[in-house]
């Protein structure tokens, strides 16, 4: 049933796009866990993993991945949407290819009101103040609506959202999830926002965010999250989280400096209780604790970018994951370049290294992505 609904939505969107006032068809090819979300999770083009902790030179080519993303964005006076097809193969490792379809369609009877449906809204309805500058991304707790069915209202800088999660619509084992969000932006001054997730069940979470927008080229925001389960921006779930992000572009020096920070405020987290059939029966607060030592999850990210020429950008990204109080940390160092190819899109390539406390350099990989527009009509 779910596949039929998605296929119908995709067909409707394609028909609508024929009459679109604006239409963009973009393809991204390669393997880069930051820019191509392979169906089984983002993967770099070639990955080498340390297989023997006693021999720090024993690296094996455990993953070779080629992915492709084809994305259609379109808009008309009343409709707009996105369809994304992602293909990934690791056949060199004996794995089969996989394909994933994602997208949404929004209908606006009037400019201030929109009705949205789809299996992924991407970052379309996020609180602006929840932005992570070093990562150029958003955590899920900053999204007012992620998938399913949503109603969005926009009036004089105020945005309100109500959303029924697609997980609870398509999966009978999932509890009904009702989400809300709000954002108010004072143009060129500041913005404020909040999200409330799963308000109808025991896995309730909320985030409150604020950002300064009055200084040109400056990104500065902060927020508080209750019941964070997104482990992309924190190494483990946490009941109370403080997060912040800052960035500044020095135009004369063609230099950009960016930093993200997120930490749990204590050692508590919320976990699901399950019965013998793995059905969720409730939620409980647990602690990260061993031998009377409390562990607190922490993540710091940093990025430096330098525009060497109009077509060449040099970047270095660093991420540190750790559990404060425990001997467990991971550091990622990722130098990369962005090269603009006249009439042929953008090429991204680099060298990603992962270090941990046990073996030092535990993994290294070669990310590669080529992004180009097949159609660009506006």
Automatic annotation (TrEMBL):
Residues 1-20 form the signal peptide. Keywords: Signal. The keyword Signal applies. This is Major outer membrane protein. It comes from Treponema porcinum.
């Amino acid at each position: 049933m779910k596949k039929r609904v998605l296929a119908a939505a995709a067909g409707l969107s394609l028909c609508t796009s024929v009459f679109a006032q604006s239409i963009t068809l973009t393809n991204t090819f390669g393997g880069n866990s930051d820019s191509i979300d392979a169906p089984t999770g983002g993967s770099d083009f070639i990955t080498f993993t340390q297989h023997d902790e006693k021999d720090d030179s024993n690296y094996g080519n455990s993953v070779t991945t080629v992915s492709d993303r084809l994305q259609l964005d379109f808009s008309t006076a009343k409709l707009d949407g996105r369809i994304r097809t992602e293909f990934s193969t690791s056949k060199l490792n004996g794995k089969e290819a996989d394909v994933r379809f994602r997208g949404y369609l929004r209908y606006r009877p009037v400019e201030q009101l929109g009705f949205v449906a789809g299996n992924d809204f991407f970052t379309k309805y996020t609180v602006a103040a929840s932005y992570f500058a070093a990562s150029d991304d958003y955590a899920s707790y900053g999204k007012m609506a992620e998938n399913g069915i949503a109603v969005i209202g926009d009036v004089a800088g105020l945005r309100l959202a109500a959303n029924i999660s697609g997980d609870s619509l398509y999966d009978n084992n999932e509890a009904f999830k009702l989400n809300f969000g709000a954002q108010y932006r004072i143009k060129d001054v500041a913005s404020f926002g909040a999200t409330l997730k799963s308000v109808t069940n025991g896995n309730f979470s909320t985030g409150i965010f604020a950002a300064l927008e009055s200084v040109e080229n400056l990104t500065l925001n902060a927020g508080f999250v209750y019941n964070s389960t997104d482990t992309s921006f924190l190494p483990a779930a946490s009941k109370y989280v403080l997060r912040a992000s800052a960035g500044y572009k020095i135009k004369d020096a063609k230099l950009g400096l960016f930093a993200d920070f997120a930490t749990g405020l204590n050692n508590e987290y919320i976990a699901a209780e399950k019965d013998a059939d793995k059905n969720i029966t409730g939620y409980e607060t647990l602690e990260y604790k061993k031998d009377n030592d409390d562990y607190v999850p922490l993540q710091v990210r940093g990025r430096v970018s330098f525009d060497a020429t109009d077509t060449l950008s040099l970047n270095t990204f660093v991420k540190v994951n750790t559990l404060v109080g425990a001997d467990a940390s991971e550091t990622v160092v990722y130098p990369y370049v962005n090269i603009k190819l006249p009439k042929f899109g953008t090429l991204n390539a680099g060298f990603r290294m992962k270090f941990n406390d046990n073996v030092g350099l535990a993994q290294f990989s070669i990310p590669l992505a080529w992004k180009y527009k097949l159609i660009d009509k506006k």
